[in-house]
Design a protein that fits this description.
The protein has helices at 9-13, 21-30, 64-77, 96-99, 102-112; strands at residues 15-17, 32-36, 39-45, 51-56, 87-93. By secondary structure, the chain is α/β, with parallel strands linked by helices.
């Protein structure tokens, strides 16, 4: 029996993925940038009641393996520090994300989303 879309781990964590390039461009063009630690988070108003998140890890982060590891670590951290509902967010990783302690990544995200840890 197929699972319902709301059974995805990301939706249970309180967010869904930004997928289309136009969505990324809109957030990057109109959003508010917050640089904290090894992250830059760009936040723009989004769909009511749902938080959407996209990830960028460019070549400065390193090889494809390092870029994928950075994005994987950020996705995992968002389960503990979800973005505010009604926002579209683009999380831009720096090379520090690959080597930082997990608790440090949680701190960076909480600070970027205006939450306390």
């Amino acid at each position: 029996m197929p699972r319902a879309a709301s059974d995805s781990p990301r939706e249970r964590a309180g967010w869904v993925s930004l997928r289309r390039p136009a969505e990324f461009r809109r957030v990057l063009r109109r959003g508010r940038r917050i640089r904290t630690g090894g992250l830059t988070v760009v936040t723009a108003p989004g769909l009511e009641g749902v938080a959407r998140v996209g990830f960028i890890a460019d070549r400065r982060v390193g090889s494809a393996t390092r870029r994928n590891r950075a994005k994987r670590r950020l996705r995992h951290a968002l389960a503990e520090v979800p973005p505010p509902p009604g926002t579209d967010n683009v999380v831009i990783a720096s090379p520090e994300v690959v080597t930082a302690d997990y608790e440090e990544i949680l701190e960076w995200l909480a600070r970027a989303f205006g939450q306390r840890r």
